[in-house]
Amino acid sequence: MHQDEKLVAMVNQIGHFFAHQGPERAPESIADHIRKFWDPRMRAAIKEHLAKGGAGLDAFAIKAVELL
Fold it and tell me: How many domains does the chain have?
């Protein structure tokens, strides 16, 4: 599995965990989790992935990465 695919799977999994918070709160909770627990290189890579189109990212994940 390519690094981008791993990061996409991870952020989508985090998104599923916070999905119960709904569209108003979930993206910020996901972004907060990523800020706290992801290495800066991982954050940069997922932002770059989104800039290239964000293939595979769920809706909440996209919004969360946009907040980073």
Answer: 1
Tokens in use for 15?
Answer: 């998104």
Identify whether the C-beta of residue 5 lies closer than 8 Å to the C-beta of residue 46. no
Q: What is the pTM of this model?
A: 0.92
What does the pLDDT look like over 4-42, one tens digit per residue? 899 999 999 999 999 999 999 999 999 999 999 999 999
Which domain range does residue 54 map to? 3-67
What would you report as the CA-atom Rg of the chain, rounded to the nearest whole angstrom? 11
| HEC-encoded secondary structure of 6-57 | HHHHHHHHHHHHHHHHHHHHHHHHHHHHHHHHCCHHHHHHHHHHHHCCCCCC
